[in-house]
Write a structure and sequence with these properties.
- The structure is a single chain.
- The protein is mainly beta.
- The chain is 12% helix and 47% strand.
- It contains 1 helix and 7 strands.
- The protein has a 6-stranded antiparallel barrel with strand order 2-3-4-7-6-5.
- A hairpin with a 3-residue loop joins strand 5 and strand 6.
Amino acid sequence: MDAAANTDQRRYRRYAIKGDVFIGTKPLFHTVGSLKDFSEGGAGFEYVASNGNPPSRTLEVDILCGKHLRLSRLPCRIAYDITVDRPSSGSIETRRCGLEFGRLSDHQAALLSLILNSSA
């Protein structure tokens, strides 16, 4: 296999999440999951597929970090949504979803930068 094929093609460095950080899709938190990694350009999270309906391809999300930090209404596009654990008969399906951030407001970009700097 070509060495170039194994390299990460992402534009931005991904940061692993320290502690519990949650993400919910808007407007009704139809999907809530655990943030696994993120960057300036996007995020990855895992969620339990409770109703068989994946989030819509474009959406807004809220990211909840601890008691006092909340990134609200981040515009996103779903880059992928895949099964993590294949459910056996009657069990729950866990999925991994990759998000690409859309255009962020100055306030959203500043909060994201604050979180990225504390994770570096």
